[in-house]
Write a structure and sequence with these properties.
By secondary structure, this protein is an all-beta fold. The protein has one helix at 254-257, and strands spanning 13-15, 27-29, 34-35, 46-47, 66-72, 78-84, 87-92, 98-101, 120-124, 127-131, 138-141, 149-152, 163-171, 174-181, 193-198, 201-205, 214-216, 227-230, 235-238, 243-247, 259-260, 274-275, 293-300, 307-313. The protein folds into 3 domains: 1-50, no CATH class; 52-152, no CATH class; 154-270, no CATH class. The chain is 1% helix and 37% strand. Strands 13, 14, 15, 16 and 17 form a 5-stranded antiparallel beta sheet that branches. It has a 4-stranded antiparallel beta sheet with strand order 5-6-7-8, with no helix packed on it. Strands 9-10-11-12 form a 4-stranded antiparallel beta sheet, with no helix packed on it.
């Protein structure tokens, strides 16, 4: 019997390309939350060290949804916010051992402890954007003050009640949400509609008077949207069994001018796919007649048989 010794590394970095067939042996693929001490000569890959709040001034109810977010303001100030138990805390001090309750007055933060409860935060135009899927999304300003200032994002200019699905995202200088629920009579369809702000103005746009910044994504499927993810080139949207993408400049005509991807065919009663951690990224293919671009998304169903679904951009 011939003995074979297999190994991996040393590593020189992390590689993430649109082509799954250009992997390089000295680069990790799509790796996150790690660091490589000697990227020039190659070395091992180590888990990124975390931190623990050793003397917190807050308490977390068992099973309570929480969100930790770090943002850097335009002046270089770094803020670390922790959202939990219906409160917003700002962390500071050596090792982030100091926590200050900066919960804004005038907005409501969910204190739900249900397994499905989620908090989301992102930064945009030097503001903190927060959503819990239960109350209206809101903007945080005066981030160094105690408390900070919180202002609801007004979707229709009439303080209509609405909620967002998943995390807000920023694409091409514009803030995007999936509308989970909408005010009565709205042109936006709950679950399949996306809404967006004016460039660098998170409080302006959407379906306020004089604006029609929305798109009901029902051309290829009426299945609900669950998440948005933006890159420099694409705004991706995720359904239970498919992933699509949009490209173009956001604006009043985004829904008619943007290029769209076709969703993969529904797989009947098959369970939803789990994205393969190494191959679930776009793979560039040669253009074909009547198509602008195409790409494939790899996924693994419970049977562990690798299946590829292709999205077509037209």
């Amino acid at each position: 019997m011939t003995q074979t010794v297999q190994g991996s590394g040393p590593w020189k970095g992390v590689y993430d390309s649109r082509d799954p067939f250009d992997d390089r042996p000295e680069f990790l693929q799509d790796a996150v939350n790690l660091y490589i001490p000697d990227a020039a000569q190659g070395s091992g890959a180590y888990a990124r060290p975390g931190f623990v709040i050793s003397t917190p001034t807050y308490s977390i109810t068992a099973g309570q949804a929480s969100c930790l977010y770090t943002m850097t303001a335009l002046d270089g100030t770094v803020y670390r916010f922790f959202l939990t138990n219906g409160k917003l805390y700002r962390l500071s001090g050596t090792g982030y051992t100091t926590s200050t309750d900066v919960t804004p007055v005038g907005v409501t933060i969910s204190n739900a402890a249900a397994p499905t409860a989620r908090f989301y935060m992102t930064s945009f135009a030097d503001e903190l954007i927060a959503s819990d899927g239960v109350n209206r999304p809101w903007r945080g300003t005066n981030l160094g003050a105690t408390p900070i200032t919180g202002t609801y994002i007004d979707i229709d200019g009439a303080a209509g009640s609405w909620t967002a699905q998943g995390a807000p995202t920023v694409y091409s200088g514009t803030l995007f949400f999936i509308a989970k629920t909408v005010p009565g009579g709205s042109s936006v369809e709950a679950g399949v509609g996306i809404v967006w702000s004016e460039p660098f103005q998170p409080d302006i746009g959407y379906v306020q008077t004089g604006y029609a910044n929305f798109w009901n994504l029902i051309e290829q499927s009426a299945e609900p949207l669950y998440a948005l993810w933006a890159t420099n080139n694409y705004l991706y949207y995720f359904r239970e069994r498919s992933i699509g993408g949009l490209v173009g400049a956001p604006g009043a005509n985004f829904h008619s001018l943007a290029l769209r991807t076709a969703s993969p065919a529904t797989r009947g009663a098959a369970p939803p796919p789990w994205l393969h951690p190494m191959r679930a990224r776009p793979a560039a293919t040669a253009p074909k007649p009547a198509m602008r671009e195409s790409f494939c998304i790899g996924s693994i169903p419970p049977s562990s048989a690798l299946v590829r679904y292709c999205c077509i951009r037209y």
